[in-house]
């Protein structure tokens, strides 16, 4: 403990009869200390623990490790559903009946499933064949997102011709090479844009 004067807040010299205010300052001085290793380890365990609740109480049916794996897998599903929560996707859609709302929800989920399959197949093939894609913006990607793949596929143009009361669908000769590569990585070829019967070459 030490007794020290308090610094004056007023400017100028102090008055002759002005008393100096003082304050007592306490300081802690550690002589010696050592770590409490048991306390530290217990604190680490507490901080690295979180609670998961399930109604599957039989560990033979669902082990603790499986519960944790399923929990951690939620992020993938939540990331996918974030796409259809975008205000641009739902802001201007008006449906009159609950049945139509339900039907639209099913369509969205199916589209999301196809989106995920597209991304998974392309990434899998790129990894196995040690390839990359050069997508829009001259970006070299080894794990492209589904959105980046769809943006590249938008460059594929289908020519529609009405001839003798029949509609012909044709593809131009200058198809974007990277878009074509994406289709092939999925196990198809660009003829799926004009063919009625589609066959997966990867199966």
Describe this structure in words.
By secondary structure, this protein is of the alpha+beta class. It has a domain at 80-193. The chain has seven helices and six strands, in the order ββαααααββαββα. A two-stranded antiparallel ribbon has the order 1-2. It has a two-stranded antiparallel ribbon with strand order 3-4. It has a two-stranded antiparallel sheet with strand order 5-6. Strand 5 and strand 6 (166-170) form a beta hairpin. Helix 3 packs across helix 5. The protein is elongated and about 115 Å long. The termini are far apart. The model has no long low-confidence stretch (mean pLDDT 83). It comes from Heyndrickxia coagulans. This is Transposase family protein. InterPro entries: IS1634_transpos (IPR047654), RNaseH-like_sf (IPR012337).
Topology:
Elements: E1 2-5, E2 22-25, H1 37-47, H2 64-72, H3 74-84, H4 87-90, H5 98-129, E3 133-135, E4 139-141, H6 146-153, E5 159-163, E6 166-170, H7 177-185
Antiparallel strand pairs: 1-2, 3-4, 5-6
Helix pairs in contact: 3-5
């Amino acid at each position: 403990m030490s007794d020290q004067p308090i610094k004056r807040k007023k400017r100028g010299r102090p008055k002759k009869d002005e008393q100096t205010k003082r304050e007592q300052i306490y300081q802690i001085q550690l002589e010696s200390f050592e770590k409490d290793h048991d306390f530290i380890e217990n604190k680490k365990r507490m901080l690295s623990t979180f609670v998961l609740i399930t109604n599957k109480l039989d560990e033979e049916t669902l082990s603790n490790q499986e519960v944790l794996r399923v929990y951690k897998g939620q992020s993938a599903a939540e990331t996918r559903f974030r796409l259809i929560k975008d205000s641009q996707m739902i802001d201007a859609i008006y449906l009159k009946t609950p049945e139509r709302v339900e039907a639209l929800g099913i369509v969205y989920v199916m589209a999301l499933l196809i989106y995920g399959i597209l991304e998974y197949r392309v990434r899998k093939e790129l990894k196995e064949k040690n390839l990359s894609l050069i997508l829009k913006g001259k970006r070299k990607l080894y794990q492209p997102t589904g959105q980046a793949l769809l943006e590249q596929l938008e460059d594929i143009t289908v020519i529609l011709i009405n001839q003798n009361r029949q509609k012909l669908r044709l593809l131009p000769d200058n198809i974007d090479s990277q878009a074509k590569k994406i289709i092939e990585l999925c196990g198809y070829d660009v003829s799926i844009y004009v063919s009625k019967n589609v066959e997966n070459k990867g199966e």
